[in-house]
Amino acid sequence: MDWTEIAVEVEADRVDDAAAIANMTVPYGIYIEDYSTLEEEVMEIAHIDLIDEDLLQKDRSKAKIHIYIDPEDNIGEAVQFLRERLTAADIAYTIDQSMVKEDDWRNNWRKFFQPMPVGERLLINPSWYTDTDPKGRLMMNIDPGLAFGTGKHETTQLCMETLERYVKGGERVLDVGCGSGILGIAAVMLGADSAFGVDIDEVAVRTANENAAVNHVQDKFTAIAGDLVDKVDGKYDIVVANIVADAIIALSASVKDLMTDDAVYITSGIIDTRADDVKNAIRDSFDIVEENTMRGWYCFVLKKKQL
């Protein structure tokens, strides 16, 4: 059966607002073409300056959001919803529609997820790339799916790069809001003795455990569904939480009780406008030993204040 592709083009500086609206139209995800920071992203992620000429020719001032509509869904309603919400948000846009065959739809988005080096030692590899040369990196097989954490988001990259520096070997790691499990799995691959993930989303937990099996670390990584306070005990050498500012503020007191005396708490998911809120909320319990940023997102490395 044919699916409908809706392509919404907006100014690049409004793509986040437009994407939030687009995400309301379908339950199974969207993908975004945004080349406005192409050179910076390539240098920061891959540390190379050779970029495909076709990419360099892309319009940097515009971004395009791709939405696929199931044949059984109402296309007219989806388009009308987009028009009303984008107009109300004062976002200039154009909308194009085209038909795609189901097999094309299933595979079309894959070209936007390619093997991606992160930091100095890790490589995230979608499973459909079966002949990827890791070139000495630790290759993680992670597919885009139903849980947050494919490695493309700035906060995930910040956390992974920070884990590279702090995992020395033999640590016990706690991944709070583990999503796809990418951070806990990375920690084990980098040398941690074990990683334990917890997430309130049961789909995320199932995905995380499946990803652990795919990457052959299921004996060292386990994820469970539940609340941090109710489901986790013991002490950990590294705690990582890539969530949101409000959750970090709410959970930090509980996290402190789960840390060894010398443990580090790596936390991200903090947009620049909320960075000071987080700092003010944790200052009585933690010292900030590192503060890293990437395109408006913050990652803090914290240690418990010593009495």
Structure description:
- The chain is an alpha/beta fold and 307 residues long.
- The chain has two domains: 2-112, ACT domain (Alpha-Beta Plaits), CATH 3.30.70; 116-304, Rossmann fold (3-Layer(aba) Sandwich), CATH 3.40.50.
- 33% of the residues lie in helices and 31% in strands.
- It is built from eleven helices and 14 strands.
- The chain has helices spanning 15-22, 38-46, 53-56, 75-88, 102-108, 154-166, 182-190, 202-214, 228-231, 245-257, 275-282; strands spanning 2-11, 31-34, 62-69, 93-101, 116-118, 122-125, 138-141, 172-176, 194-199, 221-225, 236-242, 259-271, 286-294, 297-304.
- It has a seven-stranded mixed beta sheet with strand order 10-9-8-11-12-14-13, with helices on both faces. It has a four-stranded antiparallel beta sheet with strand order 2-3-1-4. It has a three-stranded mixed beta sheet with strand order 5-6-7.
- Helix 6 runs parallel beside helix 7 and helix 10 (245-257) runs parallel beside helix 11.
- The longest helix is centred in the first third of the chain and has 14 residues, at 75-88.
- It is globular.
- The N and C termini lie far apart (65 Å).
- Residues 38-52 have low confidence and may be disordered.
